Amino acid sequence: MTDSPYTAATRRTTLVHIPLVAAPIAILHNLPGSKTLQLSASTIAGIFGGTITMWNDPAIVADNNKITKTVYYKKDKAGNPVKVKGELVVLKTVEVAPHYTLPNKKITVVYRNDSSGTVDNFTKYLNKSAPTVWTKANNKVFTTSFPGNINDPANIGRIVGQGSSTGVAQLAGKTPYSVTFAEVSYATANKLKIANVINPAGSSVAPDSVGVGAFLASATQDVNGFLTYDYATKEAGAYPLGIVSYMLADTAYPDKARAAAVKDVATYLLSSKCSGDKGAALGFSVIDGALKAKSVALIAKIG
């Protein structure tokens, strides 16, 4: 499984990317209090790029003292969004005015220092959504995509690296006034809070299966299965840091028994029984609608 395209020079031309499950990348923070922090793309880019260094920076204050919208979609029993004729069913839209008083404390940024698809997708979001702030292209290595000099003396001890999602969440959990990015499931175990992201429609959206499903509805897909995300989507309830995980499969296995086994595994992972019933509680979202139909078609090509 992979969260990013496999583009190695040795890649076989018969390989396809099959989207099987979706999930959000969450902004996790270690601030006191119980209010929900909300951050825009440019503010997130400034925080992780080292240009916003204090929690009471005017950009963060502005994000958390503006009126935003929260959209509530209809969900099924597993917590997944319900669609009618391919459209998400909106139950209500509520205006929110948080008025969050932020502390006069330095921000400690904890980033992943290992190569990962999570880093690749996170830095892609920053570059596509706030290109004047996060000026470098995405990369699986955070320091390669970092828009400034991460070894600048001002960044030493303030922007720190740690390996794996487990590692960054554990360090952030031990570091007051820190912020990191990881899967939602790492928040509770490490006593971290989860920020909402302000999307291009002006909505404050939590990283859940419904928001991810709304975001993926506008993605496009190439013939090999790989998705291009629409970070500018105006879907009101879209969580713009949603990603999919792909199974890399071959359409020309020499061993037909192996091909059949791979096809069976892919079919199960795509099913609502797996990603819906078991994954929703962990923040995963089912692949459905037109995207699921394309995944089914790609699975059928395994042979």
Automatic annotation (TrEMBL):
<feature type="domain" description="PBP">
    <location>
        <begin position="4"/>
        <end position="272"/>
    </location>
</feature>
<dbReference type="Pfam" id="PF12849">
    <property type="entry name" value="PBP_like_2"/>
</dbReference>
<dbReference type="GO" id="GO:0035435">
    <property type="term" value="P:phosphate ion transmembrane transport"/>
</dbReference>
<dbReference type="InterPro" id="IPR005673">
    <property type="entry name" value="ABC_phos-bd_PstS"/>
</dbReference>
<dbReference type="InterPro" id="IPR024370">
    <property type="entry name" value="PBP_domain"/>
</dbReference>
<keyword id="KW-0592">Phosphate transport</keyword>
<protein>
    <submittedName>
        <fullName>Unannotated protein</fullName>
    </submittedName>
</protein>
<keyword id="KW-0813">Transport</keyword>
<dbReference type="GO" id="GO:0042301">
    <property type="term" value="F:phosphate ion binding"/>
</dbReference>
<dbReference type="GO" id="GO:0043190">
    <property type="term" value="C:ATP-binding cassette (ABC) transporter complex"/>
</dbReference>
<dbReference type="InterPro" id="IPR050962">
    <property type="entry name" value="Phosphate-bind_PstS"/>
</dbReference>
<comment type="similarity">
    <text>Belongs to the PstS family.</text>
</comment>
